[in-house]
Amino acid sequence: xxxxxxxxxxxxxxxxxxxxxxxxxxxxxxxxxxxxxxxxxxxxxxxxxxxxxxxxxxxxxxxxxxxxxxxxxxxxxxxxxxxxxxxxxxxxxxxxxxxxxxxxxxxxxxxxxxxxxxxxxxxxxxxxxxxxxxxxxxxxxxxxxxxxxxxxxxxxxxxxxxxxxxxxxxxxxxxxxxxxxxxxxxxxxxxxxxxxxxxxxxxxxxxxxxxxxxxxxxxxxxxxxxxxxxxxxxxxxxxxxxxxxxxxxxxxxxxxxxxxxxxxxxxxxxxxxxxxxxxxxxxxxxxxxxxxxxxxxxxxxxxxxxxxxxxxxxxxxxxxxxxxxxxxxxx
Length: 331
Hints:
Layout: E1 2-3, E2 6-7, E3 13-15, H1 24-32, E4 38-39, E5 43-44, H2 45-49, H3 53-56, E6 68-73, H4 77-89, E7 94-99, H5 104-107, H6 119-132, E8 137-141, H7 152-161, E9 166-170, H8 184-191, E10 200-203, H9 209-219, E11 223-226, H10 236-246, H11 255-272, H12 275-288, H13 299-307, H14 311-326
Parallel strand pairs: 3-11, 4-6, 5-6, 6-7, 7-8, 8-9, 9-10, 10-11
Antiparallel strand pairs: 1-2
Helix pairs in contact: 4-6, 7-8, 9-10, 11-12, 11-14, 13-14
């Protein structure tokens, strides 16, 4: 499979762009575990062109992350064009336009999936960004605004006509937010539309190797994108790739191995930010990880981990979990 000049192996699996999740440390881990492509956190075009430092930092990445896409969002065509040009200077492999974010502060202002209510503006932005940059431009969007306006099959053709190099579809409407089940039937309808010739990437509710394989087989998508299913378990990409290649589950590592991965992520976050902000940033991953699932009476320990104020305290709690779970019982 190819997106413009970028070549991928058969049935590639991508890391979805996620705000406050897909920072450089997490992206590197996911690439090391087999993610075939990663994306930056989404970047506000308005903030980027105003040279807001916190926003501008998001466009930078390391060479080890390639191939990588920079994702931008906004509702003003001129701002989106200027933001795309700024991103292009950082030399990502492609520029992705976010027409899918459902959160109120973004969609409510007409950006992200709010564009589903103004498809003409969406198409205008897409055409202008494609024309403004030399990098391949891709789009990530949803099925429609709500159940009464699932316009994606026709819209996908129109986006393709704008010159995009690939299209990622999340199988929900904006009204659904992240509730209910993702509808992959419409993703399949777009992929199997004989008029579509660009790669179609499916996204939504992919949390296991079996589900990834099923989505490829049932819809024929060119790639599958994993989002929330990767939070707290960057090793999911290794598990998925192994299952796709062999039809069998990858051998499980020791509890300590997985714990060390999380510790590495914590340490990188602390090194990049500082101890307080780095630990705060990691709380989402610690809360979401399946590593501690099934441990009896774990709730107080989970709360203690999420309240830890220093890396020393957090690692001590993590180590106590490993010791408690795997130490031999008293005679």
